[in-house]
Write a structure and sequence with these properties.
This protein has 431 residues and is an alpha+beta fold. Helix content is 58%, strand content 12%. The protein contains eleven helices and ten strands. The strands form three sheets. It has a six-stranded mixed sheet, covered by helices on one side. Strand 1 and strand 2 form a beta hairpin. Helix 4 packs parallel to helix 6 and helix 7 packs across helix 10. The protein is rod-shaped.
C-alpha cells in the first residue's frame, strides 16, 4: 500500500453516501456547483429584512446576477483539479458583484469564494494557505467596504471577512488531519514490514539452530555406528566375540542418537509452551559419556577438565559440549589410524576455553583433509559467534589438528550446574 500524500483521501471500509462521494469526486463537485448556483439565486431574490424574517420573491433577479452566479458556481465543478484558478475566478465574480450590484442587499456570490478558499487550503501547504487566504480576505473585505451600498461597518461586510477567514482555517484543519492520518498509516505499514522482516529473521535463525543441533547429533553417532559396523563386518568370521562387542556398541550409539533426536524434536513440538526449554540438555555434566563412546569406538582421548565451580550459563555449557563432540567426531573421521586426541577445558573469571588436539596424519598423508567437507566447522563457528566468542582451527606444526575456542561468560543468562567432575585423566584405547 502506497502512503497517501497530504490532501489525499484514502479508501475507507464501509458503504453509504460517504463511500459513494469518495468514489465519485467529480460527480460530487458537480452536485455541489448546482447547489451553490441555486443558493445564490435564492439569496438574490430573497429579502432578508422582512417583518417576519426573510421573504422570497421581494427582489428581481437580474441578468448580471444570474451570469455571475453561473460562472462562480460552475467553476466549483473543477475545484479539485485547479484550486488556485477556481479561487481566482470566484474572487473576480464576487468583486464584480460588489461593484455592479449597488442595491442592498447583495446576492451571496461570495459563498463560492468560501468553498474555493477552503478547497485550496485543504489541498496545498500551510504557507500557501496563509498567503492566499490573507490576500483573499483583504481584497474582498476592502471591496465590500469601499464599493458596497451600505456603510463600511455593515454586518454584511464583517460577514465576508469572517466567512473567508473561517474557510481558510477549516481547509487548513482538514489538510492537517489528512496529513496526520497518512503519517499514522505510513508508520503502521512500516511497523508491519518491520515485524515481517523480524519474523523472517527469527525463522532463519531457528532453522540454522535446528540444523546445527541435528548435524551435531547425527554426525557424531552415525560416525561411531559406521566405524563399529565396519569392525563387526571385518571380524565377523574370524573373531565373532569382537564382532558381537562392536554390534553392541552400534546398538548403544544408535540408541543415544535416537534419544537425542527425540529430545530435539520434542523441543520443536513444545513451541507453544512458555516453560519448555529452548535448548537440548547435553552439557559438560555428561562429557564422560561422550568420551566413553569415542574410547569404545577405538579413539584414545586424554581429558583435562577443571574442578567443580559455579554454575555455567546454559548456552555456554551446551556449546562447549557440542564443540568437543564435533571436534572428536572430526578426529575420529579424518585423523587416521593410531591417532590420539586431547581435550582440555579451562575456566577463568571471565571466559571458558575449550581446546581439542590430535596427532593424526589423516587417511592420505599429513594434514590432508577429506574432500567435500561437511558443515561441522561452519556450525561450530556459528555457535561460538552467537555467544560473542572466538574460534581458531587449523593444522598443528608437529602434525595433527587443533581446535581452540574461547567463550566469554555471561552471568545474566540462565544457568545450570555443569556437573563435570574435576579430574585430569587419561583413557586408554579399547579394543
Amino acid at each position: 500500500m502506497t502512503p497517501l500524500a497530504p490532501g489525499q483521501a484514502g479508501p475507507r471500509p464501509g458503504g453509504g453516501p460517504l463511500a459513494w462521494i469518495r468514489a465519485h469526486p467529480r460527480a460530487c463537485d458537480t452536485v455541489l456547483a448546482l447547489a451553490v448556483f441555486v443558493a445564490i439565486l435564492v439569496g438574490a431574490m430573497a429579502g432578508p429584512h422582512g417583518p417576519h424574517g426573510p421573504r422570497f420573491g421581494e427582489r428581481d433577479l437580474t441578468v448580471t446576477t444570474a451570469v455571475l452566479a453561473a460562472v462562480a458556481s460552475g467553476a466549483l465543478a473543477v475545484r479539485r483539479r485547479f484550486p488556485r484558478s477556481v479561487l481566482a475566478v470566484t474572487g473576480v465574480c464576487t468583486v464584480l458583484e460588489l461593484l455592479l450590484e449597488t442595491e442592498a442587499p447583495r446576492a451571496p456570490v461570495a459563498c463560492s469564494v468560501v468553498i474555493a478558499l477552503c478547497t485550496l487550503a485543504a489541498r496545498t501547504d500551510r504557507s500557501t494557505t496563509w498567503r492566499v487566504g490573507a490576500l483573499t480576505v483583504v481584497v474582498l473585505t476592502a471591496a465590500a467596504m469601499l464599493f458596497g451600498a451600505r456603510p463600511w461597518y455593515a454586518q454584511e461586510n464583517l460577514g465576508i471577512f469572517a466567512w473567508t477567514g473561517m474557510a481558510a482555517a477549516a481547509g487548513d484543519a482538514v489538510r492537517s488531519r489528512r496529513a496526520f492520518v497518512a503519517a499514522i498509516r505510513e508508520r503502521a505499514e512500516r511497523a508491519e514490514r518491520t515485524r515481517e522482516e523480524e519474523a523472517r529473521r527469527r525463522v532463519a535463525e531457528e532453522r540454522m539452530r535446528i540444523a546445527r543441533e541435528l548435524h551435531d547429533v547425527v554426525a557424531h553417532h552415525i560416525a561411531l555406528v559406521n566405524v563399529q559396523a565396519g569392525v563387526a563386518s571385518h571380524v565377523m568370521d574370524s573373531r565373532p566375540d569382537q564382532a558381537k562387542q562392536a554390534l553392541a556398541h552400534v546398538r548403544e550409539a544408535s540408541r543415544s542418537a535416537l534419544d537425542e533426536l527425540r529430545a530435539t524434536v520434542g523441543l520443536l513440538r513444545q513451541s507453544d509452551d512458555p516453560r519448555a526449554p529452548t535448548e537440548p540438555t547435553p552439557g559438560l555434566a555428561v562429557l564422560d559419556h561422550l568420551i566413553d563412546g569415542f574410547v569404545r569406538a577405538g579413539l584414545p582421548v586424554d581429558l583435562d577438565v577443571p574442578r567443580p565451580a559455579d554454575a555455567l550459563p546454559a548456552a555456554i555449557d551446551l556449546t562447549a559440549y557440542r564443540i568437543v563432540q564435533e571436534a572428536l567426531t572430526n578426529v575420529h573421521k579424518h585423523a587416521g589410524q593410531g591417532a590420539r586426541a586431547t581435550v582440555r577445558i579451562t575456566r577463568t573469571a571471565d571466559a571458558l576455553t575449550v581446546t581439542v588436539l590430535d596427532d593424526g596424519t589423516g587417511p592420505d598423508g599429513p594434514d590432508v583433509p577429506e574432500p567435500g567437507g561437511g558443515h561441522g566447522l561452519i556450525g561450530m563457528r556459528e555457535r561460538v559467534e552467537a555467544l560473542r566468542g572466538t574460534v581458531e582451527t587449523g593444522p598443528r606444526p608437529t602434525g595433527g589438528f587443533r581446535v581452540h575456542v574461547r567463550l566469554p561468560l555471561h552471568t545474566t543468562q540462565p544457568t545450570h550446574q555443569a556437573g563435570a567432575s574435576g579430574r585430569s585423566c587419561r583413557t586408554g584405547e579399547s579394543g
